[in-house]
């Protein structure tokens, strides 16, 4: 869209002082927003090396597997972006190497997972704040505080602000932020009405209610 194109032009403009004068990894300085799915490549124009966002037309058969943020393994990063451009989707890189096989999640681990996930969200919410030794652990939070914590994370994950999380949103959270977490896939089946979307109420019930059920069972 127009907004992405404006941001892309601004990013390219900010690199002008470096082009032709220094030889850093120019693509580390440029974030590709358009074309959708593109990646940065250093190309030569008029004898000067410049970074440019392009959609790959062909890719080498070099085997250097990578895992995308939606949990799909590609032969190399070029093939990831070629597929993203074809589907017109912003599919980023989660990590190098193939996507990790899904381990078996036991019933006990699955029961504990929502509590651990809320613990992680609590840590993220406090990052950047001044250190407070008296900051309460999750075990001291009220139901209202846990609900507010879950709602805040839902709002951050809901990029298009439609009040729903798609399976793609949840896959991105899983593979980009916690690729080693083998209980994420079974846990994120919070879609009670099977419409392939998770609403705020479904998310809260899935995360807060199940977290508290596990916690109070231990007490």
Count of the separate structural domains: 3
Order of helices and strands: HEEEEHEHHEHHEH
> Sheet with the most strands?
3 strands, antiparallel
Average pLDDT for all residues: 81
Distance separating the two termini = 53 Å
Oligomeric category: single chain
| Number of alpha- plus pi-helical segments | 7
- Strand neighbour order, sheet with most strands: 4-3-5
Judging from the principal axes of the Cα atoms, what is the shape? elongated
Give the helix level as a range of percent.
40-55%
**Low-confidence parts:** none
CATH superfamily of the largest domain: EF-hand
Structural class: alpha+beta
What's the alpha carbon Rg, rounded to whole Å? 21 Å
Kindly state the number of beta strands: 7
Strand content: 5-15%
CATH class of the largest domain, please?
A: Mainly Alpha
- For the record, the CATH architecture of the largest domain stands as Orthogonal Bundle
Q: Give me the CATH fold name of the largest domain.
A: Recoverin, domain 1
Protein name: SPARC-like 2
Organism: Pundamilia nyererei
Pfam families: Kazal_2 (PF07648), SPARC_Ca_bdg (PF10591)
Keywords: Calcium, Disulfide bond, Glycoprotein, Metal-binding, Secreted, Signal
Task: Outline the structure in words.
The chain is of the alpha+beta class and 219 residues long. The protein folds into three domains: 1-54, no CATH class; 57-99, 2-Layer Sandwich (Wheat Germ Agglutinin (Isolectin 2), domain 1); 107-127 and 136-218, Orthogonal Bundle (Recoverin, domain 1), CATH 1.10.238. It is built from seven helices and seven strands. It has helices at residues 2-14, 77-87, 107-126, 143-157, 167-177, 184-187, 200-218, and strands at 39-45, 48-54, 66-68, 73-74, 93-96, 164-166, 197-199. A three-stranded antiparallel sheet has the order 4-3-5. It has a two-stranded antiparallel ribbon with strand order 1-2. It has a two-stranded antiparallel ribbon with strand order 6-7. A hairpin with a 4-residue loop joins strand 3 (66-68) and strand 4. Helix 4 packs across helix 7 (200-218). The protein is elongated and about 70 Å long. The mean pLDDT is 81. Residues 54-101 form the Kazal-like domain. It is found in: Secreted, Extracellular space, Extracellular matrix.
